[in-house]
Amino acid sequence: MTVSLLQLGLGGMAAAQGALANTANNIANANTPDYARRDVVLATAAGAAGGASLFGNGVQVEGVRRSYDQFLAGALQGLSSQSAADRTRAQALDQLDAVFADADLGLGAAMDQAFGALGDVANRPADAAARQLALARIDQLARRFNTVGQQLATLEAQGQARLQADAAQVNARLSELRQLNAQIPALSAAGQAPNDLLDQRDRALLALGELLPVHTVTNADGTLHIYTPAGAPLLVEQTASTLEAAPLPGDPRQLGLRLQTGSASQWLTTDALVGGSLGGTLAFLGQDLAPIASLLDALARGLADGLNAAHAQGVDATGQPGQALLAHDAGTLRPPGAAISLRALSLAPAQLATGVAALAQPALGNTGSARVARLDIAQAPLDVSQPVALVFADPPTQYSLTGLPGGDLLNQPYTPGQALPPPPATGAGWRLLLTGTPAAGDRFDITRNPAPGADNRNALALQALARQPLADGATPAQGYAALVGEVGGRVQSGRDQAGVSERLAGEARQRKAQVSGVNLDEEAAALLRHQQAYQACARVLQTSQSLFDALLSATGR
Amino acid sequence: MRVPTFHSSTHQFQAIEDRLARQARLSEQVATGLRVTRPGDDPLAAAQAELSRSELATLGREQRAARLAQGLMASADEALSRGTGALQSARELLVAAGNGSYSAQDRHSLATQLRAIREELRALIATPDGAGGFVFGADAGQGEAGLGLALRVGEDGCHAASVDGRAAFLALPEGNGVFTTASAAGNAGSGWIGAGSVADPAALTGHRYTLTVGGAPGALTLAVQDVDTGVTVQPAQPLTLPAELTVDGQRLRLEGTPAPGDTFDIAPAGRQGLLPLVDGAIAWLEDAALPAHLRHEHLGLSLAGLDRALEAFSLLRSQVGSEQGRAEATLLEGESRTLAVTARRSQLQDADLAEAVSSLQSNQAGLEAALKAYASIGQLSLMRLLP
Residue A495: closest CA among chain B residues belongs to which residue? Predict the structure, then answer.
């Protein structure tokens, strides 16, 4: 019996020692993130003779159990993946936000200054300083567009660099997981779960999940198979795939993600990658940056085409038709062919086409009240090689146009407010509109403009472009305001989404920590408990010793 | 429910971080005075503020054009008022020249005064617009010949920046505006015909007529023939001078003593320039050899011409006045609209400073409380109580 007392005491002390060691390990790892708390599993010791002894055989440590709920861990995996994606997208959108930050230095202000300068030229068409300023402001507008385009291109480059860096990170994690896949089954076969390795694998899996969304399958022998949500294999047994960011075959300027498994490779589509920072970056590049860039491009093209078209309808101070003011060059931003690269062509101040080639004047002897309201341009360039005369017959319900390039129009009926020559006749390319009532014999002469440098009619048309629907049916100012609103809306929604998914991931982390986290007070209580148990078992040994002493003194001489 | 130590302390610190972030955002708002600096702060307000800014720039552009138009129309109006004064003094000079007791010397001095008025009128026609051009005709460098190219500025050319002065300076109607009268060159007698007036506008034909004096001295007759149709409108009738007759709606007056065989021509009125009109008046004033009866005739025509000029100036002035009124209305409306749009822009993007400062202070208090709470977490622990 004393022998068994000794055994019992020793057994208890050993168990308490093991429990204390485990508690110490828990306390030491209290601040280690993603550490799963360990519990010692104490059980009554099995006896040598099949466990049928009267008083029991003491306690033994059966093993160390890791507090881990795979369902909670799985939920955290998915939510943290989503949160990483939203966070990456929100950060990139914040940078996009900064591009459109200062309203007074933005594109809208540059457009207004350009139109304002054109208005000043319309006020004083013969002033060379006003013309020079107008050309300078148009140049400034082109540069401002280019600056914004450049900033968008920089954001794209940063996103692509991030794709490459994250793909390299994925490969590193996969190789780490592959090594663990080799080690864990070997140690599990010995009977005890390799808790540290399992913790390490959890950590690596969570880090991988923050890069791209994964699905995992745990096998009976403890190995893990990892797939993308679409089913592409990332890690199967000992075969780890390699991920790289490579230019797409269809469009070398875009980067896509290619998964190489052995000798086969496949492209991961954006639909499959809804999660992780890779998914977030791809979402930003494809769904946010590309549409904003093409909106900007549409605005730039509309403005350039509108200005060039209106300028070409007029003539400059030397009588030459207006040349192009702005040119687009091929840019570096998606989609292919998108040109956010405007260039203001260098024109001399005298080459600003402020005038119209033809001038309509009433003759001095007119007795009626008819006056020239407008000379519209139906087809540029105008043919001013010969003067055209508009004469009203007696009574003035008929008119004749003589000198038109396509042939004279004689004795045509006249309706007040009618454009002459009436469509579809093109005549010399212009259409004349009169106000008032002509008298019999009234005459209007349409001749070449003798001083186009002092004529401001085309400058008025250029200034009026600010109210024309140049940007997909909206005026330039409305188009830019819509662009700003679009950017702001995306930024705000990205921020909100990131906030929501961060909160969800935080709650999942909390639920997991409730099961797996270390509570120092709990460990302190365990320390106390096992310390007492150790002391009690030591006291058992002491009792066994005193029993033996008593026996010896009783039988000794 | 278990409370894991590590997780709960990081979770509590998150609240402090959120407070710090909000503090930073609020102090930026207070420092810049703007609630919306980036589109992401408030997308709708950012877009609307952008539109307001653009509208302010457009209004500024329109104001510049309207101000230019108003200034130019004011100087045109002032020039025309001076011109009207000059024309009236010219008229007075000519009326004085009709005094029969004046000698050639007196008329010559009147002509000199008329020359001075002519120079004044010439300078007025070339009133500069401050940018190398002329108010009455936009083309610099062509002088009087450039009159007529009217410059319009502003949105859709709604304001006039120069005035078409041709009707007043280049194309005045001759005579009474409808027809002119003249003695034929070879007349022997000393009769003259007045400028005439319109008796019945409906009866006007626009044809040329010839009045022929026939008969014998002392028993003169007058016949009127329509030159264009060849019809004799009035056969020879006894003529007593001074004679007033009406031919096809045109009232004519013959005075003096014409000789038999004298003819007088009536023709539809053409156009003459203002300066040639004044030059004509100076010419006959200085012509000492001009017979008195022809002087009377030229006086009548010049006076009629000056009356036409005064009418044209008055018409032009009313046009200038209406343009000026339009420019001023645009300026006033633009000012009030600018104020409204500026207020709207401020409402959209400016920070309510009182609200921001009070939020800042309440956030500060919350931050202090959170920091104190965090510091006290570690105080209570079973670890401290273990022996």
Answer: B40
Cα B145 to chain center, whole Å?
20
User: Given CB atoms, is B155 within the 8 Å cutoff of chain A?
Assistant: yes
Q: Smallest Cβ distance to B39: which of A100, A113, A521?
A: A100
- Average pLDDT of chain A, as a whole number: 88
Task: Look at strands B263-268 and A341-344 and give their pairing.
Answer: unpaired
Q: What tens digit of pLDDT does each residue of A316-354 get?
A: 888 888 888 998 765 444 444 344 678 888 888 888 888
Cis peptide before B260 (omega within 30 of 0): no
Across the strands, what pairs with B193? B254
Mean pLDDT across A292-318:
90
Residue among B5, B55, B146 minimizing CB distance to A30: B5
Q: In the predicted model, is pLDDT for residue A219 greater than 80?
A: yes
CB atoms within 10 A of CB B314: 13
Q: Assess whether pLDDT exceeds 90 at residue A200.
A: yes
Query: How many beta carbons lie within 10 A of that of residue A249, not counting itself?
Result: 8
- pLDDT digit string, tens, across residues B272-307: 889 999 999 999 998 888 888 888 889 999 999 999
Helix residue ranges per DSSP H, B104-201: 104-125, 166-169
Q: Is the peptide bond before A233 cis (omega within 30 degrees of 0)?
A: no
Chain A residue numbers with beta carbons less than 8 Å from the beta carbon of B58 are 112, 115, 466, 477
Minimum CA–CA partner of A367 in chain B: B173
Q: Which residues of chain B have a CB within 8 Å of the CB of A120?
A: 64
The tokens describing A438, both together, are 């002509």
User: Quick one: tokens of B77?
Assistant: 């109006």
Chain B residues touching A356 at Cβ < 8 A: none
Per-residue pLDDT, A3: 52
Nearest by CB to A101, from B37, B131, B139: name it.
B37
The band of B308, judged by pLDDT with boundaries at 50, 70 and 90, is very high
Q: What pLDDT, in 10s, does the model give residues B122-135?
A: 898 888 888 777 88
CA B14 to each of CA A166, A493, A510, B382: distance values in angstroms, whole numbers, following the listed order: 26, 22, 13, 25
Decide if A449 contacts A356 (C-beta within 8 A). Answer: yes
Q: Which residue has the tokens 């048309």?
A: A461
Chain A CB contacts of B40 under 8 Å are 93-94, 97, 487-488, 491-492, 495
pLDDT at A544 over 80: yes
C-beta separation of B159 from B65 below 8 A: yes
Average pLDDT over residues A418-440: 83
Does any CB of chain A come closer than 8 Å to the CB of residue B347? no
Write out chain A residues lying below 8 Å of B60, CB-based: 116
> Which residues in A lie closer than 8 A to residue B48 (C-beta atoms)?
481
- Which of B132, B161, B171 faces A123 most closely, judged by CB atoms? B161
- Residues with Cβ within 8 Å of residue A227, at least 6 apart in sequence: A214, A215, A216, A217, A233, A234
Q: Strands A239-240 and A242-247: what pairing? A: unpaired
Residue of A nearest to B64 (CA): A120
Tokens of A435: 């106000």
B171-206 pLDDT tens trace:
888 888 888 998 888 888 888 888 888 988 888 888
Residue B207 has pLDDT above 80, yes or no: yes
pLDDT tops 90 at residue B56: yes
Task: Give chain A's largest Cα–Cα span.
Answer: 167
Cα angle B72, B77, B80; round to 5: 125
Nearest Cβ partner for B6 among A30, A108, A451: A30
3-state secondary structure of A445: strand
| Angle separating helix axes B5-32 and B353-375, nearest 10 degrees | 160
Poorest-pLDDT segment among A5-19, A325-339, B70-84, B239-253: A325-339
Beta strands in B194-248 (DSSP E): 197-198, 209-216, 219-226, 232-238, 243-247
